[in-house]
Design goal:
CATH topology of the largest domain: Rossmann fold
Largest sheet: 7 strands, mixed
Distance between the termini: 56 Å
Number of helices: 18
CATH architecture of the largest domain: 3-Layer(aba) Sandwich
Order of helices and strands: HHEHEHHEEHEHHHHHEHHHEHEEEHHHE
Helix content: 40-55%
Number of strands: 11
Strand order of the largest sheet: 3-2-1-4-5-7-6
Structural class: alpha/beta
CATH superfamily of the largest domain: Vaccinia Virus protein VP39
CATH class of the largest domain: Alpha Beta
Length: 402
Amino acid sequence: MSDSQAINQAVANLYNTYPFPPDPLSDLEPPGYNWRWCWTSAYSFCTGIKPTTQDIRILDAGCGTGSGTDYLIHLNPQAEVTAIDLSAKALEVAKERCQRSGVIAKHAKPVKFFNLKLEEATQLAGEFDFINCVGVLHHLPEPERGIQALAEKLKPGGILHIFVYAELGRWEISLMQKAIALLQQDKRGDYRDGVKVGREIFANLPENNRILQQEKKLWSLENHRDESFADMYVHPQEIDYNIETLFNLIEASGLDFVGFSNPQYWQLDRLIGKSPELMSRAENLSDRQLYRLIELLDPNLTHYEFFLAKPPLPREDWTNDGVLSQAIPELNPCMQGFPAQNFLNFEYQMVRLSDGEYEFMLACEKNEVKACVEDIFSSCQLDLAGVRSLWERQLIVLSPQI
């Protein structure tokens, strides 16, 4: 058995012992939304434009116990969804989850599950418009092979959503992983023993210990479940990235970097914006250098979440007033509490609309005839700058006139 095969087998053994994530099964549809798993919201974020079709193919690459798959099926009712995972036990839970929640029964297209390693995604038929890969690449023996396999299966004009670990925000986790491994010695690979050792360490560390404090501050709520504790602290394979190694991985894919899905974090002015001199010095930095500077100054980031794309991918920034005035506006599907002037946006943050914004969004909600922005202006007090602001805040999606 090769080293890569041995690592994949060890990872499969972990998730067969502790299927992850351990979210409880439910007879109800998944609550709320995650906009990164909604084709309309994700595509609009990447391109500025509402997708022209909902009749797409989605791949959940490394689905685990199917929590994300459940949402992908629920949020994309016209899509054909395929889910793969290397753990047979986790895949069984994923199938049960999606059947019990009722999303498969209500879905118009087939939902398929395959017991495959991520690197084996190339065995799947056809290409996919939208690929979701959350928390998987950093557990592969050769992440470059994994991302290249996904790139091969991505349709031209398609988007790939990725989540991988960041080393700076996981420093304490890394130390704990190494400590448990040292104490386990020849019992490494016995994941139940690893959880036992880890919990014993936490129970005996002094209260002011940095590792214990970080666990209590950030992770203890989810880590009360052994599945989560094992995934975090006794995983047999983990690669934590920094900006340099992350973009090396991205370059290996051959895909285009679209952007991070948390752009607010990547704004330098929130850190040193009060210093014109420092901001001036940063003007000549490349994007990658700027990202590195930000993570060095705010080293709490525990993961990177971002989108890649296979060209050609259309882009529209709606800075042209003439083009914007003819666009067809619709509500972003990932919101909660609208119609009201106060509601939760795509990130579950409270939004308050002005009277003009509220009137415009009400008109968008009732826009069955696909009226353009200019036509809707006759029924509300909002200018093009206000419409552009709604789009920038991802409260509406826009389609160009055909």
